[in-house]
Design brief:
Number of helices: 4
CATH class: Alpha Beta
Strand order of the largest sheet: 11-12-13-10-4-14
CATH superfamily: Probable tRNA modification gtpase trme, domain 1
Structural class: alpha+beta
Order of helices and strands: EHEEEEEEEEEHEEEHEH
CATH architecture: 2-Layer Sandwich
CATH topology: Gyrase A, domain 2
Largest sheet: 6 strands, mixed
Oligomer: single chain
Number of strands: 14
Shape: globular
Distance between the termini: 53 Å
Amino acid sequence: MSGLEFLKPSGDAVARSPMERQALAAGARFEVRDGWNVAVAFDGESPDASVWWADVSHLAKLEVNGPHDLVLGQATRTNGAWWCPVTRDRTLVIGDREADGLDLTSALAALAIGGPLAREVFARFCALDLRPQSLPLHGFRPGSVARTPGYVLREDKDRFLMLFGWALGEYMWTVVADAAQGLGGAPVGVDALDRQAARA
């Protein structure tokens, strides 16, 4: 083996969310998907509860630089991916591993938060105004989430995607769990989100 061969990642290496320990402690069952260890289900989960949250840090996140004709503040759904304009010359693409851009997947962690009381959960730790008149369907906002820089995308009527710095994963899970559990909420796995999307 040459001097630096040991630094090359193994083809069997599995990427892990910064919130994996919290999810495991909450009763998550994991599966490896697209090279990521993903929480797919939780003991006794209820995606139809008044509020829930899910770790979706495995979603591809790419930064595309250059002028675009997207509307600031509004995400566009294209081929299953969200194109979210951050500035006139910078776009965050969520869910498309093939886009031509800088890979931020392991720089930005992500939580999906949903249910009829999702906005109430956000109100307990987020400075952004997420009322429908301020954040319409597919609205996208950069701003302060739990006193840290982040983004919030309104994916559906009562479903939001929150992105934040990878190193803050454990902190953000704790903040969201504290806010949601006070309202009867609990974590769910990505399989529950897929079933919701199929019913929509």
